[in-house]
Amino acid sequence: MEKQTQSLPSAQLPKYPHIAIAILSSGKHVGLLYRLTDDSPRLLHLADHLKLLDQALLDQALAGSDYAWFECVGFQNTEARDFASWLQKIYRSNVNRVRYGFNYWPGACFDSDGSWNPSADGIGLTCATFVMDMFHSYGYQILDTATWKKRPEDQAFFSWVIQHLAGRAPEGYIQSQRDALAAAVRFHPLEVASCAARYDAEPIKFEQAISMASRMDLELVARRGPWAIDGSVLTD
Questions:
Q1: Residue 20 phi/psi, 5° resolution?
Q2: Helix (H) / strand (E) containing 88
Q3: Partners of 20 in the beta sheet?
Q4: What is the CB neighbour count within 10 angstroms for residue 146?
Q5: What is the predicted pLDDT for the residue at 101?
Q6: I need a surface site. Which of 152, 174, 178, 227 has the fewest CB within 10 A?
Q7: CB of 123 within 8 A of CB of 103?
């Protein structure tokens, strides 16, 4: 979930000018840093239920200290700029529309105009699956969802989501989350962040993502505070 951030000095911005992955140093929240032409960089992320945020990194409104930025190494300058422009459309089309939940159905949820059209089989997104679907809807399948495995320890997260939605979402929607518990698979923020940073044409499988996420976690522990780093550190 959302945690407020500190403004990032321009000298510490990612080397890549248009698109980077943003991850809290705790590894518990992920979003996308993007920059249009020479504009100030922005952070687009799903902070909570019906709470999609698009924040200028240099604004004082971002008060905190611990996002890290990994360059998305698989994007050429032109395609990264085009993707960044489309991210802005997503925000403008979906303020107060994107629902938080774990009953994610892999697929492209965002139309060419940026509007959100969830599948009838999966109507909720976490911060991580929101990032996945932004890439997927634009033609970049950053990870191979069919290879992801259920993990017993993720049940605690699913239970937390259901409790968190109480009072924030209609009971029918919360029940849709309960109904999805048996089949739910979690895509962890660190896993999605590392896949986005290293993606280059081929979807990344579960076992490789686990290894890369572990490397990213080590980098986050070693370098507390706002900083930028090339995604190539995530693999040998």
A1: -155, 160
A2: helix 77-94
A3: 33, 71
A4: 9
A5: 95
A6: 152
A7: yes
